[in-house]
Specification:
about 140 residues, mainly alpha, elongated
Length: about 140
């Protein structure tokens, strides 16, 4: 089930209350980079650490104060920090924000040179399969 209205409310809250524009932050990133960026930001906030300078804070309000004062809340974190395989895994189970990333218009642009094409493999020929040793089954599959 898609949670687009909830995600839109979340994005509005982040923009109005915290001056954090996720859409601007993820602009130009492919889907997988967006997932890693969101997971990185969520983990850093959960750990009460600044997403840009790694400053550790005592609590979320002091972290938000630091990030707002230093304008780190508007800076894309260093790619070497968030572009790590560990950030393919969500910080929060069933994260609605991650589920809504593929619904954005900017994702996976057709003709985007940075995207990797997906090439389907050829289906193996049933007669070459070592798993099909029963001649009657093989004959039946070849006739259908």
């Amino acid at each position: 089930m898609r949670q687009v209205p909830v995600v839109n409310k979340l994005k509005t809250h982040m923009t109005k209350q915290h001056n954090f524009d996720l859409d601007q932050m993820k602009e130009g990133l492919n889907f997988y980079h967006q997932v890693k960026l969101v997971n990185y930001i969520r983990r850093r906030i959960h750990q009460t650490s600044c997403i840009s300078c790694d400053q550790q804070c005592d609590d979320i309000p002091s972290l938000l104060d630091h990030m707002t004062t230093t304008k780190h809340i508007k800076q894309l974190p260093n790619k070497t920090e968030w572009d790590q395989p560990q950030y393919f895994f969500p910080t929060y189970e069933n994260d609605n924000l991650l589920c809504a990333l593929d619904e954005d218009d900017d994702d996976d642009k057709i003709g985007d040179e940075s995207s990797t094409p997906i090439i389907a493999e050829d289906a193996p020929d049933a007669k070459d399969s070592i798993l099909l040793t029963d001649e009657a089954v093989l004959q039946d599959l070849q006739n259908t």
